[in-house]
Amino acid sequence: MNRTQRIAAAAASALVVGVLAAGCGGSGDESSDGTITLRVNLFGQFGYKDLYRQFEKEHPGVKIVETAEGDLGKYNTKLSQQIAANASAGDVVAIEEGQTVNFLQTPDKFVNLQEHGYDAIKGDYLPYVANATTTSDGSATIGLGTDVGGLAMCYRRDLFEQAGLPTDREEVAKLWPTWEDFITTGEKFQQGIGDDKIHFVDAATNTYNSILMQGSDETYFDRDNKLVVESNPAVKNAWDIANEMIDAGLTAKIVAFSKEWDAGFKNGSFATVACPAWMTGNIKGQAGDALAGVWDITTVPGGSGNWGGSWLAVPKSSKHQKEAVELIKFLSSAEGQMGAFEAEGRLPSLPALYDTPELKDATNPYFNDAPVGQLFVAGAKNLKPVYLGAKNVPVRDAFENVLRSVENGQRSAKEGWPEAVKAAEKAAK
Amino acid sequence: MKIRDRLTKTEARVAPYAFISPFFIVFAIFGLFPLIYTLWVSLHDWSLLAGNQGFVGLDNYRELAQDADFWRALTNTLGIFVLATVPQLVLATVLAQVLNSKLRAKTFWRMGVLLPNVTSVAAVGIIFGLIFARDYGVVNWGLGLVGVGPVDWQGHRWSSWLAISVMVDWRWTGYNALILLASLQAVPKELYEAARIDGASAWRQFWSVTVPMLRPTIIFVSIVATIGGIQLFTEPLLFGAGVNAISGGSTGQFQTVAMYLVQQAFTGQRFGYASTVAWVLFLLVAVFAVINVALLRRIRSVD
């Protein structure tokens, strides 16, 4: 073996060792000058940009980087993966309402906030917000609440006018005290507008979910995590109303959160959208400045309701747990929640804020100066907590899919129900 | 024999193994281990977050055999695979032949066919999703011009398969054409000259010289396309973006096996069952690769 060969052999063995070492080594994100970087992993827009700057100013040596995934399904998949693998989820993660029970299966993968002074702030939150991320035996709390859904109804004034309906939000509210009235109004709208490209609501699924979350304190699962789709009348009720809506031809048959849905906001494919507080930020972003003042907000049929809401948690895999806990405490404090409300319209989960003038008298200029404070706070105050089981997401997906297939004419409504029950049973396994 | 000589001899014997070992070590860590671990998980009731819930033997496999959703996903996968791969390979071979002929600005055309492949698959998915959109899509607009009503491309099995196949073909035809072109250039010019002297037409030359000479490359390209086709995931996922994108349409009309796997693992939280799907998918790829080779061996070789 000559010299060259020998060097090559040595290089090869070095490579092998290097590969093995790379598999074991980890790299911290602490840079040489002692600053630490906190990675915040969110879905959608939480409106935290200014709050980060403030936190950084008050905590020298801390830098905050945010990654935000637009697609909630994708976000949840990735987060489950990262939490299960105990790696790379970030220092702060957002947990969506439907996922809280799911992650409570493994409280040990998150920092227990009870060890970080949770008891002192627990009472500040809406009770159901505080309970949603606490284990049933009360020994661990994995997340701090940020915002709640608080349901209202967003509608387009121009399309209402075109269809010969009132446009003033008080009068519009009088059109639909119940969902039955909502459908009647929709039929009038459809006749008045006389254009088969414009529909009254975006999709049957969005309305269906809103109704379901108003109906009772449980949806698909009871508190023992037993599937109760057939025995819980709330599910069938929401299903039936959604199907009436489909029968009446009120839905634009668009998949929510798809590109076509986004385009629909701009092009005026639909006149109403079930509107939790966070949706206002979404509408503004999709419809754009050209439609400012065209959209408006009024009360939702059936009074109140809830759709969505989030919690912030610190995974155990975080290398800077102490600072991360500090950060989520700040972001979910009164100051942080008001900041998120001002930036993205997210409704606080701290009832103490509901009586402050900043929130009570808040209006949203984009929505024709709608009194968003009053509208959403009224919804949030009447909120009844709804229990969602650990398998809520797959079962909801199964139900939504069957509902969409009815909406698209792939099945009749009559065939749909047993099919939905069957799909739910499979998804709940 | 001196010690030094003996050492040199050992080195000479060991060195080649050291050279090839990185691949096998990496493969063992990132290939073989996950494969075997997946098999182990598939024999358990395993929740993604809650962990191992006990050994269940072959229960997952039994359930899978009777799972209508799995069979539907398999049908979709094979359907899209055939719809995408066959025209893709035929087109790539023809394209390679054209690129090999006397063209002006050869490099420009050759690089050009590779461009779609360089594009990020996410961008492709979003753009094609918009092109095939029901309400404001270009394709439906074009159909409207010639008096055909709008097609709900996501709504039916055939139309969603077609749209996804177009997406796959758009990305991969050029790539395959370049690989085929490379081996085409290795075909001795004398063979074509001889064929021409014998009076063979261009078509006859293609069929009797080009195709047989390309046989090994065609086998390689088809196996790669088969593996890609059976694991198809991103294109159909992005095609149906929005809530529940992973279920591939409201009745799962374009959900592929890979999507079903991810849905079971991360939405359904059934890690054990998803591992079962993964293993069956692995076996399928293996079987299809073998079938592929067996079929393509029948292409007449010149030697």
TrEMBL record, chain A:
Span list, region Disordered: 408-429
Keywords: Signal
Biased segments, Basic and acidic residues type: 412-429
N-terminal signal peptide: 1-21
SUPFAM superfamilies per the UniProt record, alphabetical: Periplasmic binding protein-like II
PROSITE patterns, per the entry: PROKAR_LIPOPROTEIN
Protein name (record): Extracellular solute-binding protein
